[in-house]
Amino acid sequence: LDGVVASGLAESNKLDVTITESEMKTEEKGTEKESTRESNSNILDETPDYPGEKHISIQQHLADLEKLADPREDKKQPCPLCPEEKFKACYHHKLHRHLQNLHWKVSVEFEGYRMCICHLPCHPVKSNLAGDQAFSKMGAHYHCIICSATIMRRTDMISHINRHVNKGETKTRFSTVVAPKASHEVVKESATDVQVLPNYSTPQKTDSYFNPKMKLNRQLIFCALAVLAKERKPIACLDAFGATGIMGLQWAKHLQSSVRVTINDCNENSVAMIQENCLLNKMKVKLSTREDDNDEAMGDGEENADTIEVTKMDANVIMHLRSFDFIHLDPFGTSVNYLDSAFRNVRNLGIVSLTSTDTSSLYAKAQHVALRHYGCNIVRTEYYRELAARVVVAAVTRAAARCNKGIEVLLAVALEHFVLVVVRVLRGPSPADDAAKRIRYLIHCQWCEERSFQKEGNMVEENPYQQLPCDCHGSMPGKTAVVLGPLWSGPLFNAGFLRRMLFEAMHYGLDEVQPLLKTLVCEAECTTLKHFSAPSPCEENKQEECGVYIKTPKPAAESLVPGKRKREGLIPDAGAKRSKSESSAEHPAFYYNIHRHSIKGMNMPKLNKFLTYLSKAGYRVSRTHFDPMGVRTNAPLAQFKTILMKYSTPTYAGGQAEGPVHLPEDAQAEEQLQGAGGAELLEADQSVVAEDCPPGCDAD
């Protein structure tokens, strides 16, 4: 008997149930009988599916729960899941109703087992409760079948079980047992295999996130790194937020010995998954979790050429400790918290790329958040995506200037899910001052959507509305414009760098990103020509960028823009060459949406034809990736509307027999509208309709 009691007490200690000493003395006899029942029951025995002891509230059938009730001498049975103070012993029929209504109906089911609600003193009670109030507060809780947790609410218990299922944990475990290995799915992208959790599309806070929709973003960053790898070898690159490690693995697998990849993450589960993914792709792994590592952690020897270093640190810490040539930041939300660390030790002429996914604040849906994170005042405009890109570049410029570094924007992309900015770092106070001068405020008219950057200087103007090309302030009552910013007023693209990115995308077979890069090249040069050809590796030319000479693919004859001079050889004066190239290649700021400025009652021309009309009028024009119906041009808004109105045709009523205007009369109307406004167009249309109407009809 003593052996049975000792075994029963040992088994009860495994249940993680806190029972006071007084209650243990009074319930010692009941515990002995319950332990014998547990040993005889087939349900609570150890099975291959669920090793370990389970709580008595976890059963498969209601009858099994009734068997746990111990009949007394008077044939009354107490509830096995309620203390005697809460439910007194009763006859079997009443106990059956109690177990069915109070415990079984509100249970949580998982793979054939029911986790019934338990009222035993298993859950810790608040210290300020005592007596009957304590029993009423501590009554309802559940015991998890997978772990040793006790949860009070049924909805929380269901969510708790779902989290175990998403992680692949479907077996019983306690705090002293190592958690079973989660089941992974293998996803392949750009010839790189990565293991992801089953819930990678909707992860929890402690899980690694893999977003298939960010494939375009990863390919853009890879092309930028491939261009940098052609300039100098080897380069130290850092993926500060590795998650599954897909981006760093693509760098190391395709660029091989040209890069020394470091993948960092502060989450222990993510670091373990990154190591598994490195082994899955047959890459050597070097784990480093110490914060006292320095730049000599990975030498320049050949033995580390195909080795990926995986670190478990905070992103700010590793960027403070080490120097890198290429740094990519992709945190959850904004990246402004890591900009100071990124520019602290980045090498000269290195590249910093950052992906911001806080589109709610950048796209002016949460303006107070944009003011708090970026220090910018923005409103929702027709060009809100480019406005978001310029907000991020302004924050990057200020962070670099604090470290006595300037930047040159190589690429700025704002799509539905993210804003990507890629900049080149220029060391020295002079580049920092030049970049800081490019941060200005923007004056935006809320009536006609016209916009203009404020002039340089600190002098206060009497009438700031004079800087706007429109005259809405004179014709409209009240204040018609708002001041936005501070924003980046310089160019957002570097045409030469984008062409080299396009060449690398063709070289590595990245077909998804090539259309976007072609659009970006045309947008950077503000042209509608789309003649691109993949240059051969032997055709290389040297061009100057950021004050240094770099070797680039030589463009073919058909890919040259008419009117552009072919670059041959080197130009002695690098500073003059740089200033001249920057002034000539700078594209117009912002764009206009053709639908936003359409005329009511008029059919607009096709977008490509409208671009041709603007180009014939002598303006620079191109499409933009920010808006599929956007037009980037240096034409003022008034001229934009005039040309749009000029080549728009009136929309006629369905009952009119004559149909649309004939071509000869359209040509006459266009000749009358040279340099005229909308009123003259309406008069010309009325005269055309009057000529077509038979005698006696009303021309109006």
TrEMBL record:
It catalyses: guanosine(27) in tRNA(Tyr) + 2 S-adenosyl-L-methionine = N(2)-dimethylguanosine(27) in tRNA(Tyr) + 2 S-adenosyl-L-homocysteine + 2 H(+). Residues 17-52 are annotated as: Disordered. GO terms for cellular component: nucleolus. Keywords: Isopeptide bond, Metal-binding, Methyltransferase, Nucleus, Phosphoprotein, RNA-binding, S-adenosyl-L-methionine, Transferase, tRNA processing, tRNA-binding, Ubl conjugation, Zinc, Zinc-finger. It is found in: Nucleus, Nucleolus. The keyword Metal-binding applies. SUPFAM superfamilies: S-adenosyl-L-methionine-dependent methyltransferases. Residues 144-164 form the C2H2-type domain. InterPro entries: SAM-dependent_MTases_sf, Trm1, tRNA_met_Trm1_C, Znf_C2H2_type. It comes from the Eukaryota. GO terms for molecular function: tRNA (guanine) methyltransferase activity; tRNA binding; zinc ion binding. Residues 22-37 have a biased composition (Basic and acidic residues). GO terms for biological process: tRNA N2-guanine methylation. Pfam families: TRM (PF02005). Belongs to the class I-like SAM-binding methyltransferase superfamily. Trm1 family. This is tRNA (guanine(27)-N(2))-dimethyltransferase. It comes from Centropus unirufus. The lineage of its organism: Eukaryota, Metazoa, Chordata, Craniata, Vertebrata.
